[in-house]
Amino acid sequence: MPPEKTPIADALDDDDYPAYTMGRAAAMLGTTPAFLRALGEARLITPLRSEGGHRRYSRYQLRIAARARELVDQGTPVEAACRIIILEDQLEEALRLNEEMRRQKNVPTPDDGS
């Protein structure tokens, strides 16, 4: 029987747990705190705040920031990169919902040959 998880272990496994300080997040991404602040100002990611008011980032937010960095490194302005990511996310959600509705109605998907 596997050992029970502690609340700390649960938090570490949670992609939404704000485990990373701004400095650590910037170092992990190979960028600057100013870049992370710019993503916040563009409302791409909204870090949680510690009791002392410091920004804290989750793994999920770091993945989004990494995608933004890829686009910026390719020459895309920060604001445009943020908009692209938001649109990509909206498209992914719409496709997911469409697939879910098709399954509920037993409608064949375009790629299953029906």
Automatic annotation (TrEMBL):
Positions of the HTH merR-type domain: 19-87
Descriptive protein name: MerR family transcriptional regulator
Source organism per UniProt: Streptomyces ficellus
